[in-house]
């Protein structure tokens, strides 16, 4: 990056930011420093500069400085949203606003079951705090525990306990607005009140949702709900041998979830997913193209698993947990003859010991609210120098629709020579159709195939009226363009809010495809030249 202010208007901002956060917390992209997607889909990118405030007051000062110098900021909590761009800003000319130094746990209430945290607090941090203080609480964790709790909630991430739909546990935010003012949402808008993290609402329109996947402000703290440590916990497994039994499996599991017999959002994975936990691709197949079905069936038998492998969790009174296990077994085997249903129940001291151990099996760990980094090893599936991008459209939890879209995805993966990784997350009425594309970083031929496959998957989903719940930064405009009812009325309203709240357009321009007025015309012309994800009329 040039140090000539005439060539780089960010230099004035960075120089003056030193006075606010100190020289050690102004990052200029020299050597290995700087912010960049750890798994870039395009080669040759340069790292971005950034600033690391350590307090709400410093965030306010940095935002005001950004307004004075008209320097757009790209905000993130810890930059661990891997597969979606990590900490990399959307576009040139931006400065990363890294909130990882703001890592205080502000409150934990063991009696009512909530915490208040800053954006730099990781799942590991809160887990260790609960353990150290002997609190009777369980938390919900995503696949990797090194990320920000608050950042994950704001981006609608998920875990595998009864509170696994993380954004639904979000309760009360403190937000720095684009002019540097400080706002508290919900009941927290009252001074000297502790109702902020207790009641999801307030007086008047609810504001918390405006700051999820948003560029209307910088969230500097937030409340989240925790669950009481259960007297018993059951880790359940279901194995189904036939590929064509997927519709029945989806239907029975989501019905059990709607009835609250299964208490978490069950996970359903395929053989490729199981293999990524056991080694790298060349350990199982070194041929061209996707691993063929006959080899996947051999691998399934070698692993002692099903073609589909579902996991679920049960929590609470030991007697109720045991009865729920019986109901799950009865319902699943009635719907799918030959299905294997197994469950291990942890009670008393054994259950509490499980809670505080990073046990080896990652899915079971997450269902027990214990953070882990074990799934990180899957990144090496295609290459030791591996990376991935996630494609995760939301689709209705109807078995026949899930199976039909699975077949489309399977055909696309085969066409582009990638192994289809499936990790479905099943909710009462919808499911997250998680597929991952593993690639070798820097391999332009493979990256070109990965980019094209990703766009084809997005287009196939949009043709059915499906869309991802979050996006890689490179594809936010494309996905936002698919929300096209009434000439993109939702996006037009989001732009109206953006221009009113952030007239200088300094907070995360382009996040989720929402650009401020000063960048909109240029971005609109680029979007018009890009392939659309909307179905043909």
Strand proportion: 15-25%
Radius of gyration: 23 Å
Question: Helix share of residues?
Answer: 25-40%
Shape: globular
Structural class: alpha+beta
Mean pLDDT across the residues is 91
Q: State the separation between the terminal residues, measured CA to CA.
A: 45 Å
The largest sheet, given as strand count, sense and whether it forms a barrel, is:
10 strands, antiparallel
Q: Low-confidence parts, pLDDT < 50 over ≥5 residues?
A: 1-5, 355-360, 528-537
Number of strands: 21
Tally of contiguous helical segments: 15
Cofactor: FAD
Pfam family, one: FAD_binding_4
InterPro entries: Cytok_DH_C_sf, FAD-bd_oxidored_4_C, FAD-bd_PCMH, FAD-bd_PCMH-like_sf, FAD-bd_PCMH_sub1, FAD-bd_PCMH_sub2, FAD-linked_Oxase-like_C, Oxid_FAD_bind_N
Keywords: FAD, Flavoprotein, Oxidoreductase
Features:
537 residues, alpha+beta, 10-stranded antiparallel β-sheet, disordered C terminus, FAD, FAD-bd_PCMH, flavoprotein
Detailed description of the structure:
- It holds the Pfam family FAD-oxidase_C.
- By secondary structure, this protein is an alpha+beta fold.
- It contains 15 helices and 21 strands.
- It has helices spanning 10-21, 56-69, 123-132, 149-154, 246-258, 271-276, 293-303, 318-335, 348-355, 362-367, 399-416, 444-463, 476-481, 485-501, 517-529; strands spanning 26-27, 50-51, 73-76, 95-98, 105-109, 114-117, 137-138, 170-176, 182-184, 218-225, 227-228, 232-240, 267-269, 308-316, 340-347, 386-391, 393-396, 421-426, 430-432, 435-440, 467-468.
- Strands 12, 13, 14, 15, 16, 17, 18, 19, 20 and 21 form a ten-stranded antiparallel beta sheet that branches.
- A hairpin with a 4-residue loop joins β5 and β6.
- α11 (399-416) runs antiparallel to α12 (444-463).
- The two termini are 45 Å apart.
């Amino acid at each position: 990056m040039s140090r000539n202010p005439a060539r780089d208007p960010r230099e004035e901002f960075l120089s003056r930011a030193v006075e606010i956060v100190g020289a050690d917390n102004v990052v200029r992209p020299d050597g290995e420093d700087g912010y960049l997607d750890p798994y870039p889909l395009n080669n040759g990118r340069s790292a971005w500069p950034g600033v690391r405030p350590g307090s709400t007051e410093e965030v306010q000062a940095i935002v005001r400085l950004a307004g004075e110098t008209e320097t757009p900021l790209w905000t993130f909590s810890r930059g661990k949203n891997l597969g979606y761009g990590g900490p990399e800003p959307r576009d040139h000319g931006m400065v990363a606003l890294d909130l990882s130094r703001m890592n205080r746990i502000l409150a934990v209430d063991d009696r009512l079951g909530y915490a208040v945290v800053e954006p730099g607090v990781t799942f590991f941090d809160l887990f260790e705090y609960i353990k150290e203080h002997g609190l009777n609480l369980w938390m919900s964790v995503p696949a990797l525990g090194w990320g920000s709790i608050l950042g994950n909630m704001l981006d609608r991430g998920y875990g595998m306990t009864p509170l696994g739909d993380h954004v639904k546990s979000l309760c009360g935010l403190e937000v720095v607005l684009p002019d540097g003012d400080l706002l508290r949402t919900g009941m927290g808008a009252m001074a000297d009140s502790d109702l902020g993290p207790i009641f999801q609402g307030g007086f008047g329109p609810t504001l918390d949702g405006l700051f999820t996947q948003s560029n209307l402000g910088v969230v500097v703290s937030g409340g989240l709900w925790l669950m009481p440590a259960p007297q018993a916990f059951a880790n359940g497994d279901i194995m189904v041998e036939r590929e064509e039994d997927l519709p029945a499996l989806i239907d029975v599991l989501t019905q059990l979830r709607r009835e609250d017999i299964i208490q978490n959002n069950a996970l359903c994975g395929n053989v490729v997913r199981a293999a990524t936990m056991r080694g790298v691709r060349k350990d199982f197949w070194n041929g061209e193209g996707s691993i063929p079905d006959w080899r996947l069936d051999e691998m399934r038998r070698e692993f002692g698993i099903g073609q589909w492998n579902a996991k679920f969790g049960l929590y609470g009174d030991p007697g109720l947990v045991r009865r729920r296990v019986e109901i799950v077994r009865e319902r699943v085997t009635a719907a799918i003859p030959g299905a294997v249903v197994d469950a291990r129940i942890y009670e008393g001291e054994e259950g509490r010991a499980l809670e505080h151990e990073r046990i080896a099996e990652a899915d079971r760990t997450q269902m027990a609210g214990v953070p882990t980094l074990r799934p990180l090893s899957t990144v090496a599936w295609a290459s030791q120098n591996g990376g991935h991008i996630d494609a995760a459209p939301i689709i209705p939890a109807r078995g026949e629709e899930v199976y039909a879209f699975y077949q489309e995805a399977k055909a696309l993966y085969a066409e582009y020579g990638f192994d289809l990784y499936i990790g479905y997350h099943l909710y009462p009425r919808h499911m997250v159709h998680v597929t991952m594309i593993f690639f070798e970083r820097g391999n332009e031929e493979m990256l070109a195939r990965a980019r094209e496959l990703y766009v084809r998957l997005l287009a196939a989903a949009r043709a059915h009226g499906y869309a991802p719940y979050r996006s890689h930064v490179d594809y936010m405009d494309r996905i936002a363009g698919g929300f096209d009812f009434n000439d993109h009325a939702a996006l037009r309203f989001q732009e109206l809010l953006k221009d009113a709240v952030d007239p200088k357009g300094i907070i995360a321009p382009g996040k989720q495809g929402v650009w401020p007025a000063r960048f909109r015309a240029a971005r609109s012309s680029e979007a018009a030249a890009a392939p659309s994800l909307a179905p043909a009329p």
